[in-house]
Automatic annotation (TrEMBL):
Keywords: Methyltransferase, Transferase
GO biological process, one term: methylation
Pfam families named in the record: Methyltransf_11
Stored InterPro entries: Methyltransf_11, Methyltransf_Superfamily, SAM-dependent_MTases_sf
CDD domains: AdoMet_MTases
Domain Methyltransferase type: 74-173
GO molecular function terms listed in the Swiss-Prot or TrEMBL record: methyltransferase activity
Keyword Methyltransferase: yes
Lineage: Bacteria, Bacillati, Actinomycetota, Actinomycetes, Kitasatosporales
Domain of life per record: Bacteria
Matching Gene3D superfamilies: Vaccinia Virus protein VP39 (3.40.50.150)
Keyword Glycosyltransferase among UniProt keywords: no
Name this protein carries in UniProt: Class I SAM-dependent methyltransferase
Amino acid sequence: MIQGPEPEATRRIAGATESSRANRRWWDRNADDYQIEHGDFLGDARFVWGPEGLDEAEAALLGPAEDLKDRAVLEIGAGAAQCSRWLAAQGARPVALDLSGRQLRHARRIDLEAPAPTGPVPLVQADAGALPFADASFDLACSAYGALPFIADTARVQREVRRVLRPGGRWVFSVTHPVRWAFPDEPGPEGLTAVASYFDRTPYVEQDDRGIAVYVEHHRTLGDRVREITAAGLTLVDLVEPEWPAWNRQDWGGWSPLRGRLLPGTAIFVCEAR
Ligand SMILES: C[S@@+](CC[C@H](N)C(=O)[O-])C[C@H]1O[C@@H](n2cnc3c(N)ncnc32)[C@H](O)[C@@H]1O
């Protein structure tokens, strides 16, 4: 296969449409590699919140597992729907939403290779910024690094999640810890020295030789996230910063045991619909 030149990494403005288009294509192109590289760590039916390996079975951020039975749960940016499969095994009724058709193909592949007694997870291909569901149609919503790091207008996602949740429903999502934006995204010692402003919200963009974005990530400070959550009609009930556990010796991109001992890598926001 003929490969083009490596994309250029830069910081520049990237709006909602450009970010969504770039990321859908990027995840379609990279879904196979992502599942090959991380599939064992994620498990087919585990609910892992991030590279530290915090597992919902222990953390119970969505509430006690026994209370999940019969709950309608929306998983946003579900990838191969591993978290949804764990939720289904607890008796919940998950729907797994993702922008990337290729990621959802992996969800279907896992359902076919290892059929669960609860049947295949219902899948929806859509952008998290425009959820194709009626108001108040879910009891719970969750996202493990899905969608939010990649979306320009995350305030809109918070409003959309609030809209589809019933009052009192929980919304739990994990993202890269905002402080990481001040550091190079490297797992080694070069990732331990701050080189950029934590306050610089300019998106990280990889672009091709015509200047067209092929990958985009968006930064929000902790305060930005809290303001977006509360403005959407949600209450922040906890902010979890998982510590790197001794058993986890695996690097995941810029997340590593070395950096995990010193810096938070993941922020998990636990919210409730007012
Ligand atoms: C880091 S992966 C996480 C996937 C899965 N939650 C996991 O833990 O493996 C991010 C996922 O977000 C999806 N995504 C990116 N932008 C999105 C958007 N605008 N709407 C919905 N999903 C999106 C990607 O396709 C990808 O599957």
